[in-house]
Batch of 3 targets.
Target 1
Amino acid sequence: MGKESLTITDNRTGTSYEVPIEDGAISASAIRKIKTSDDDFGLLTYDPGLSATASVKSAITYIDGDAGILRYRGYPIDQLAAHSSYLETAYLIVKGELPDRQALEAWEHNITMHTMLHENLKKFMEGFRYDAHPMGILVGTVAALSTFYPDAKNIDDVESRRLQARRLIGKMPTIAAAAYRYSLGLPYVQPDNDLSYAGNFLSMLFKMTELKYVPNPVLERALDVLFILHADHEQNCSANAIRAVGSSRVDPYSATAAAAAALYGPLHGGANEAAVNMLKEIGSVEKIPQFIEKVKAGEGRLMGFGHRVYKNYDPRATIIKRIADGVFEETGKNSLIDIAVELERIALQDDYFIDRKLYPNVDFYSGIIYEAMGFPTAMFPVLFAIGRTSGWVAQWAENVIDEEQRIVRPRQLYLGADTRDFVPLTERPKPATRERKLLAGKML
Ligand code: ACO
């Protein structure tokens, strides 16, 4: 084994630099030291999408995308999905270790004690239009939590951080259920502290006039496992968002709202909604080949396929496929599953998908299960957000206490106009129509 370093020769100057390799990475600030002269700003690395940049040191989640491995705090996702509960997994993610019985009971109790919403927060939610997307309601309402809990600004106080974490994990299902009930014009249902985390969520969603809602145990467990599968996924778009926004030292509710906003996008948490819509659009197994040809011709993407990190089967998709069988036994089979299975079969034999290592991701099957359970598609990213809250909280807190972290403020490569003098409006030449269109630009 050679030396753990890199020797870089700058061919512009002939100078060589030795850059140490630590944990499989070189420090980007070492690259900045590569200069052509003393007043040179220094070399930058250019990495749109940050796919070749490690921006944090983290001990929460490990992914090996080539091998299809996902572990929370070292524990394989399939073991957690088989043996753990969402709240136990949330404890593991947030605190770093599995709890003993006493710690788990205390944690469950503490989360349960924070499931209720301030009445004014409910009134705030009523300000949304009757047909507002529940994810929009969730993003806005989570941000509004910061105004109810100004103590959350004490981000350097560990007790305050713990309290906000419990509030966020506790209240997220209540906000999600309220958003759903609101869109249907149904009265909100108070949390039922006798029920499990997932069972209580089902109760807040679906309870009608019965005195006590009794969740279907198969669906309750399926939902709990889906929350486990979505709990964290290292430096994805929304984790990066909560870290970047949190690096300004804003309160965790505002930072979580930013994470939820990131999750709303169709390339992230909105993909399960997009996947179900795509399956509906395909409509039947016979139409799959022609749909695949359209995707290969660049007309749209196969939603729920492909991943920035996984270049193999997403391990969560395998577990979800198994859950689907149990759910369908209770709810009856969703016709979309046949289209999904066949679409996956055809795509995985096609060179286009093989060459690009495109496999089903977590979103390919989750939407079908949610739909079979009675959720409208608009609720899918909301369900994702509930599970992901523990991951967000952990990513945020890890960033807050990391002394190497600073406010996130990337550099840019400026390729715009050089300095030029302002021309008063009256003196500007009138551009021809074509030039005016060009001036209008593509950006906005
Ligand atoms: N369907 C068809 N082609 C695809 C797909 C897809 N789903 N995903 C990637 N490709 C192609 C691209 O067109 C590109 O082809 P090219 O090299 O010929 O130009 C190549 O594969 C690489 O694609 P990139 O966009 O560079 O991959 P990137 O890592 O940036 O994107 C992403 C990852 C956003 C997930 C992408 O695969 C995608 O859009 N998938 C569909 C949306 C989706 O399912 N998102 C959920 C992700 S999981 C999550 O957030 C929970």
Target 2
Amino acid sequence: MGIVNVTPDSFADGGRHADPAAAIAHARALRADGADIVDVGGESTRPGAPPVAERDELARVLPVVAALAADGAIVSVDTMKPGVMRAAIAAGATMVNDVRALTAPGALEAVADSGVALCLMHMRGAPRTMQDAPEYADVVAEVRAFLVARAAACEAAGIARERILLDPGFGFGKSLGHNLALLHALPSLAAAGYPVLAGLSRKSMLGALTGRPVGERMVASVAAALAAVARGAAIVRVHDVRETVDALKVWAAVDAGRAPA
Ligand code: 9MG
């Protein structure tokens, strides 16, 4: 999954694809590099990010979603707002990626009324405050229980199990230790029976491990993506699609022990 931020303030590429034409060109390049899905977002979720009005978010994402869907791309919309979910689905998005796991009023219904896929992510708190000393008694058990409960709520609302993915939400209200515990324990989340999506690309946990600023975390991001796939992730959400695809090809061939067909 390639990341397309149509925002002026995302942490890793803020402003570079802020207008729809630049975002469309970027998404097309990510597809050419091997992205199977493009995730289009119009509101930054980086720690401390201010909220964006629905009207502004719609103006950012809808032209991008529509153009990519017309290309035949699998388009995911990264949003917490039910109104944006509905409009993006009408414009051709076939997946909703919600960092609030459909907890906003009306979000469950917006997705249940459609046939699209859904990523439920765990976040402790809200983007503005989530990194203020997050605490857990058992981060792995708590994140897993939250996600499984949200998936059950979605299924009860009529969303078929096959449409649901789970994501532990690396960096969303978690310390470095929490993030590493979750990555190490990814197989236990995968054992819940839903495909797992992992987003580690360029995140501050990689800066903490390597000492590198955000613009120099590509190698660490590729290593993290490989680690996530090796531990059961079905989808990795990344900025550096070409490098990640290359690394995954090598890893998959070694894992299979034979040349690709
Ligand atoms: C929007 N967004 C930013 N980071 C993310 C992550 O790790 N997972 C998902 N699903 N979305 C994310």
Target 3
Amino acid sequence: MLLVVWTCVLVGALAVPQHSPVHVADQARSESESLEEEARTFLAGVDERGSTECTAATMASWEYASDINERNKKIKAEAQLKYADWQKESWQMVKKWNGRWETLSDPFLKRQFKAMSILGTAALDKKELEKYNSLVTDMSTIYSTAKICDYKNPKKCDLELEPDLTRILRTSRDYGELQHVWKMWRHASGRKVRDHYKLFVRLANKAAKLNGFDNMGDMWLYPYESDTFREDMAELWEQLRPLYQQMHAYVRRKLREQYGEEYVSKRGPIPAHLLGNMWSQSWGEVYSLAIPYQGKTHVDVTPQMVQQNYTPRKMFELSDDFFGSLNLTRMPSEFWTESIIEKPKERDIICHASAWDFCNGKDFRIKQCTDVTMSDLITVHHEMGHVEYFLQYKHLPAVFREGANPGFHEAVGDVLALSVATPKHLAKVGLLDEVHDDDEEDINFLMNMALDKITFLPFGYLMDNWRWDVFSGKTPEKDWNCAWWNLRYNIQGIKPPVQRSEFDFDPGAKYHIPANVPYIRYFVSYVVQFQFHKALCIKAGQYDPQDPSKPLHKCDIYQSTEAGNALGDMLKLGSSVAWPEAMAALTGGKRMDASVIREYFKPLETWLTNDNQKHGEFVGWETDEVLCTSDGPREAATGEPSSATTLVPAGPLYLLLFLLVGLLLSHRS
Ligand code: BJ2
Ligand code: ZN
């Protein structure tokens, strides 16, 4: 500081003539300083007003999502339009800075202008935007209010996804019941949104084009700031596929032992309804069928939670305590008063768990129809991770109040949950009686984790692969459902329990499609969370690559303020730097790296490879069944396994048969 003052005095003392180079440089400096100042004031103004507008729009969305009725729907629609007006207005103001903001020297200011140069769907004209918004609202409402009839009591028709259908998928081992629930859920949800989705895709692409992108799939990738993103994802998946295939072969054998070979064949894809989850997206709920060592400690603690009278509140407090133990920010009092953590009885709400930032630095909430299960305890941590990110970056301007990339946001709570789920930690909180340092218990634990994490990877990868091709037009409307099943078969190795057709719309039976939430973020998260875990475990002194008694999968970062501070430092950056910088701040590296997840599961991978070999299991899948036809019967399905033959649409075959019969009849007469 002193040095600067001295320089100035010196320059003045030399009495430099008016047009000397020194004076010009001086003038240029002061011009650029005043431009920076102007930019700073401008951005602060936009930020303040933007936060207020954002709070109003978020509040209206919350009101609707937590009390679905016509009045709230109308208020939400109006608030969305008002917010879009503001977005357009501020975008136009920002545009006036084009040609000037690029010359700013402060990278923090420049990055704000860059981030604000994309308008988003507000680029649509008012009528189209209104339609686009109402399509998304209607699709998520159809999904969230869908009900089906009971399998054994067909007159009882009030079964909802949460908790009823989720519980049946989790606990029932009745092939027919599972098939009924799987199929009827898709009738009640996906099928009903297919028409909405057609218009939705058109409007989404129109908005993307107005923003200078080819289609909405491309626009979704903008926050990743990478030209090779799709290729990078494909490469990560290739690195992880061998481990998934070992899991697939092992679980298929276990399901075959449970249901019999007529339902689960030796070399075929796995029937999608037997995996404990409506979308076969993670298979943790079939752990009881897949435990490697039955006699050893079981690490699914749902029964203990129920027995100890756990409540949703207690689950949230447990999670809050974990964040607090790391010296991270605890949930503020408004969080506890305003969040909805149990399903209300008297009204319809969007039950799918979510975390909310009301853009005012004070109000942060979670809405979750919490069930007392271990899987929901993990989801509680997942949602709390979002809120922790919100809290850590609340000091930043609104444009930076995002994850370094969307996958980072998804990873925070999951990273903590990796510690929470360890037997050592579960014993610490009284959910397991005793833990033994024993290889077989280790394999039991890793199996439980892999059923959640490894089996999710192909699903996390394929959801947006399907949407990218839909948005780009590579998959035409007439093939939407069969293209979905091609991916489900090729990438996940699963098959529908009953033949599908283009009358169905199975992607629409998964929340993020009707609610229009991009999904590749979860695939990214499942990779980077292991990288974050490793970095934090090193900081916590819980992991040492040279010490076999401290492997990655046994690490529990609970109470490590070193780990918590390092995580907090990354979260505080929000999206103010490109994600490789944020990644480097925590892990020292700048790339997404699948080798860490492979390292974590190494003992299980070795065990699985041996076990599959020992049982002569076929690793991979093949089939000659028709899984999906373009114009198949509207109502396929009985309780029997399907017996169709390839993935080729059967339309032309029917036509041929029809002509042959016609020919035969005319010949006879
Ligand atoms: C249960 C979880 C989402 C999430 C919700 C709904 C959609 C977005 C938010 C955002 C968060 C943000 C979810 C968990 C793992 C796999 C996936 C699934 N719900 N969202 N507002 N998950 O990500 O928390 O809360 O970024 O602000 O959907 O398929 O279940
Ligand atoms: Zn999330």
